[in-house]
Structure formats: C-alpha cells, structure tokens
Amino acid sequence: MGVVEEALEELRLGKPVLIYDWPDRESEVDMVFYAGDMTPEKVYKLRTEAGGLICYGTSQHVAKALGLPSFDEVLAATGFSDLVAKTPGYGARSNLAVWVNSVKVRTGISDVDRALTISSLHELVKLALQGNVAEAKRRFQSEFYAPGHVPVLVAKDLKERLGHTELAVRLTVEAGLPPSVAYAEMLKFGSSMSLEEASEYARNSGLVLVKGDDILSYVRGRGP
C-alpha cells in the first residue's frame, strides 16, 4: 500500500493525516481531519499539536450550492480592491469565503463550540451532495451567523490552485467521502514546522505524512 492509500484509509477511520505542499510554495505541513465525525477532542488536537488557524474546507460545488462568494469579491465590492490586489509571496490568492459560527454555540471559540460549527457545516455538505440545495441554503442562512470563529475555505480544482485546501479536499474525494475537512498548519515556536520536524512528529505519533507530489501522482494515475 502506497502512502496516499494509507492516508485515504486514515481519513476513513477518522484519524488525522499530515499534508506537505511544496518547498517552493508555502513549504508547510497541515494536520487534516475528515470533518464527518468532528469532536472537541479533534479540535483540541488541531489547536495543541498543530497550532495554526483551524479552518474548514469544502468544494466549489458545495460553495456554489450555498451561494458563497469569495471573501476577495466581497472586499473588492466594498472598496478594498487595493487590499485584495496583493498576494502572498508564494503567489496563490486566498480561497477564503466567510467566517461563521453555529447559532447553537456559546461564544464560538471553545473546542466544543468549534466542533459543533464544523459538524453543522458538514451536514450542509451532505444535503448539497444529495441534491437538497434549497434546504442546504436555507439552513446555512438560519443555522449560522457571521462573522464567527470558523473560516470556511473553498477548494479550487488542482489544475487551478495547489494549496492545502485543494489537496485535503481531493483526498476526501479519493477516499469516497464528502468533500469536508478541518485542518490547521503545523507550527513550532516562532515559525512553521519544517518537513523534517513534521516527519519526526508523524513517526513518533504513528501518523501518515503525504506530500503534494504524491497526491498529484496518485490523482493522475487514476485518470480524469
């Protein structure tokens, strides 16, 4: 079994996988969970063992069903075009859509609250994939508020953007799961964790670390 197949099986089992992009991109490792069974314990692991911004990611298909615009578009339309005209050093534009909380949370930031918001977002993904688009949109409007504490990012096609969101969402699809992930960057004091440090963490923790090139090779080998 190759490393990508191992990662797919870990996601199916509800375990985290680590994804490294490329040395000439962010050169970062993200810890990724399939969001179908999100728990406070998993949010706590992302918060304490990864340490970066805890995000929720889904596909363009789901975002379109919910009517989510990109945050870039919202800012540009409200007079902040100069802000969104700039890009990070690695060149890729943000795929952030919106920050939300479930209306059922207390403050939105606790492990319990963020697990609830992420699980609630996952329910919308399932509705959209089942074709219940109107109900998914209705529930998004009625069961969430913004701004909140969970950023929702929208994965583009891997031919358009090669980010952690795209890689993570594509892994769930290859695993036969809905495109629904929670993830955070692996950090150490002062900077991102290096690939070598993340690899050591993975070995010590019994986790699978997969690289962007591995995922692309697997996808290309599977065909369109």
Tell me briefly what this model is.
46% of the residues lie in helices and 21% in strands. It is α+β, with helices and mostly antiparallel strands. Helix 2 (40-50) packs across helix 6 and helix 3 (60-66) packs across helix 6.
What's the number of helices?
A: 10
CATH architecture label name: Alpha-Beta Complex
**Uncertain stretches of 5 or more adjacent residues:** none
H and E order: HEEHEHHHEHHEHEEEHEH
How would a textbook summarize the main sheet? 7 strands, mixed
Helix/strand-derived class? alpha+beta
Q: List how many beta strands DSSP finds.
A: 9
What's the rounded overall pLDDT mean? Answer: 95
Total domain count: 1
* CATH fold call: DHBP synthase
Describe the structure.
The protein has helices at 3-12, 40-50, 60-66, 71-77, 81-84, 111-129, 133-143, 164-174, 195-205, 212-222; strands at 17-20, 29-34, 55-59, 96-102, 144-155, 180-185, 187-188, 191-192, 208-211. The protein has a single domain (3-222), classed as DHBP synthase (Alpha-Beta Complex), CATH 3.90.870. The protein is of the alpha+beta class and 224 residues long. 46% of the residues lie in helices and 21% in strands. The chain has a seven-stranded mixed sheet, sandwiched between helices. The chain has a two-stranded antiparallel ribbon with strand order 7-8.
Provide the fold topology.
Blueprint: H1 3-12, E1 17-20, E2 29-34, H2 40-50, E3 55-59, H3 60-66, H4 71-77, H5 81-84, E4 96-102, H6 111-129, H7 133-143, E5 144-155, H8 164-174, E6 180-185, E7 187-188, E8 191-192, H9 195-205, E9 208-211, H10 212-222
Parallel strand pairs: 1-9, 3-5
Antiparallel strand pairs: 1-2, 2-6, 3-6, 4-5, 7-8
Helix pairs in contact: 2-6, 3-6, 6-7
